[in-house]
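We were asked to recover a plausible sequence for a given structure. The inputs and outputs are reproduced exactly as logged, with field labels preserved.

PROBLEM: sequence recovery
POSITIONS: 124
GIVEN STRUCTURE:
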C-alpha cells in the first residue's frame, strides 16, 4: 500500500482476480485510480473506460465477449500493463462420475455441488 496506492514505483507485479466474469473495470477504469485494489498504474484512457463500462451493461454473452475483445485490443495498443499469466484449471474425472457442470471461479467452487454427484456402479 505504501508503494502501489500512491504510484511510487516504476514497475510492479500485482495479482488480479476478476472472478468468473473477466470484467476489467475494477483493475483498469480511471475512476479506480488510487483505490486499494484498483488502477495502480493510474491509467486514464477514455476508450478503455468506455469499453469497461460497456462490458458491464451488455446482457448477452456474445456482445460482452465482443466488448471484452475490443478492450483487450485497445489494452495491447495502449499497454497500461503486461499480463504475465492467467490461471486455467482443468480437472480429469472418471467417466463413472455423474456431476452437474459448474463454472469454477475459485478452487473451492469445483466442489460447490458435490452433494449432487453420483457414481455409476452398474447396479440398480
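RECOVERED SEQUENCE:
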Amino acid at each position: 500500500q505504501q508503494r502501489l496506492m500512491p504510484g511510487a514505483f516504476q514497475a510492479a507485479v500485482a495479482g488480479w482476480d476478476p472472478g468468473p466474469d473477466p470484467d476489467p473495470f475494477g483493475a483498469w477504469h480511471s475512476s479506480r485510480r488510487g483505490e486499494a485494489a484498483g488502477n495502480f498504474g493510474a491509467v486514464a484512457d477514455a476508450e478503455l473506460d468506455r469499453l469497461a463500462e460497456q462490458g458491464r451493461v451488455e446482457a448477452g454473452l456474445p456482445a460482452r465477449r465482443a466488448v471484452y475483445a475490443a478492450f483487450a485490443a485497445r489494452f495491447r495498443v495502449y499497454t497500461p500493463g503486461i499480463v504475465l499469466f492467467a490461471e486455467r484449471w482443468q480437472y480429469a474425472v472418471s467417466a463413472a462420475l455423474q456431476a452437474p457442470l459448474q463454472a469454477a471461479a475459485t478452487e473451492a467452487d469445483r466442489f460447490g455441488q458435490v452433494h449432487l454427484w453420483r457414481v455409476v456402479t452398474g447396479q440398480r
